[in-house]
Every structure is written in C-alpha cells, then in structure tokens.
C-alpha cells in the first residue's frame, strides 16, 4: 500500500514537472517586433495588412509574440527599412522588394513583374515553385542579415494617373512620372523621366509639378491619396503590376532566437494576411472607380493595343538587359519563365475572356 502511494505521488510529481519545465515552454521567450512600414496604416491592403497581423498575433501566440507598427518616417524612413532591419537598428520591417532596386538591381521581381503573373500564378511560383527559395537567396547573396516572409498581396493596380491623354508612345517622351520598379524601367526605355517617390510624398510632387503623372496602387488606395484632384485621366490596365506581393523582413538574429512555434506562427499568420489583403482589396475597387467618375470627374481610360504592345516589347528588352548585368536576376527570371511556360496551358484554357478585349 505504501509502495502504491509512493508510485502515485511520483506520477503526480512527474506530471507537475513536465508541465512546469517543458523544454518547449522554457524556450518560448516573449518577443516584441518593432515594425516600421513603408505604407500608412490607413491605406487598404498596404498599411491595413500590418495592423491586421498585429491585432491577431498577440492572441494567437498567447502573448509570446507582439508587434508594434510604426508609420512611415516615425522610426525609420521608408527607403531605409532594409538596412535598418539588417543592421539590427530595428528587429523587423514591412515593405516591398522593389524599393531596394537601387541596392539590388532586379529585386522588384519578387514584388511584381510587368505583364504578369497574376496573383494566383505568382503565389503558386512563390510557395510551390522556387520563388521563396530565390527570394531569400537574393538577400543572403547581397549580404543582408534578414529573413523574408511574403505577407500580403493585391491584384492589378491602375496603369497610372495623367493630366492629359496618352494616345501614343510619343506622349510619354520627356514626361516626368513617378513609376514603380520594373515598370519604371520600361517607361524610362520609352523616353519618360521616371522617379520613385514614397506614397506619402506623391500628391505634393504632383501639386508642385515636380512630376506630371504617377502610379501608386489600386483605385481605392489612390483615392485616399487624392490623385484625382490633380490628374483626371486614370489609365488601365495595370500592365506593370498585375499582382503585388509585400514582405515582412525580420532581422535574422531575431528570427533565429525565436522558437519553432513562434516562427511557424509568423509564417501561418502572414499567409492568412495574404489571403485577407487580396479579398479585402478586391472588395472595394468597383465603388472607388464609380465614385471617381461620378464625384470627381475622373475618366477611366484603357491603353490602346499599340501602346500595350510597345510596353511589352520594351519590357522584354529590359529583362534581357538585366539578365546580362545581373546573374541573379537572370537565374530568377529564367526560373520564373520556366514556371510560367508550364503554367501557360492552364492559363489559356481555364479562364473566361474578360476586360475590354472580350
């Protein structure tokens, strides 16, 4: 009887020890991610994605992960986020890979590519092709001490806001325009004077005529920035950004200090945030376009087939030039092109005709 009592007592002690000093629990040190962002929190799908993650991660992690979001320029300037995260000045940041184009030519390919892929195909390559592996390889190869997680995606953007009609490629020559990433390189090749300005500075540049035209994002997002007050011609399609992928950058030392469950939770919540950003931004564009026309006198325009063909031709020339000067871009471009070549039969047969080309 005494032995039995000792055995039962030992069992209770073992259980108590197991739950009080589990290696998993012991490793779970609380981590606060301080996240400067490139995009204002009010911008749908751009800024709201980070707040969506921040609002949920504390609960989902049972308090072991917290995220504090900093508006653009409050902690780090938008174009300085990568360096700040890599050097450990902050332990995380939210941005888009094309903003590092000056540091890593061709880096925009991990955010968006002229003439596709669209969101579904892009995510297929990113998650089930070699996209993510190459994405991390880009940062590692350039010496940045960051771990990258895709975290948010939106569908096509507008093709640009103009003060005058664009009837031919000639109308682009000498035009001072803000344009993003690889699309900007295309317009440069066609004679435009291209600059890349953070979102919060675009309206003032338009107002002062430092730029004569711009693109930034989708209609509902652009509407909040007020482009319609100055430029009344909103061109479509967003040939340069058929899908746009966003990134959560985490200092690699911080990432390596996390437990496996914390790392997995960040991966899972960013995947959920990607689905949410896509669904949310798709739900609000039609109303914004209708409002722009009815209330603000905006004209929704569609580029002519001739202009789109010129954009596409120039894009393949840009891709060829980048492949010559950047071995890593060449590797990524060839991998993506091979994936798209295999995907093509599905793209041709699966979808209904749409748009003004129907």
How would you portray this structure in words?
With 358 residues, the protein is α/β, with parallel strands linked by helices. Helix content is 50%, strand content 15%. The protein has a six-stranded mixed β-sheet with strand order 7-6-8-5-9-11, sandwiched between helices. Strands 3-10-4 form a three-stranded antiparallel β-sheet. The chain has a two-stranded parallel ribbon with strand order 1-2. Strand 1 (31-36), helix 3 and strand 2 (65-70) form a beta-alpha-beta unit. Helix 12 (305-325) packs antiparallel against helix 13. Residues 1-26 have low confidence and may be disordered.
Helix content: 40-55%
What is the CATH level 1 assignment of the largest domain? Alpha Beta
* Count of alpha/pi helices: 13
**Mean pLDDT, nearest integer?**
92
Unreliable parts: 1-26
SS-based class: alpha/beta
Report the CATH topology name of the largest domain: D-Maltodextrin-Binding Protein, domain 2
The profile of the biggest β sheet is: 6 strands, mixed
Radius of gyration: 24 Å
Query: What's the CATH architecture name of the largest domain?
Result: 3-Layer(aba) Sandwich
Compute the separation of the termini in Å.
86 Å
Strand content: 5-15%
- The main sheet orders its strands as 7-6-8-5-9-11
How many discrete domains? 2
Number of DSSP strands? 11
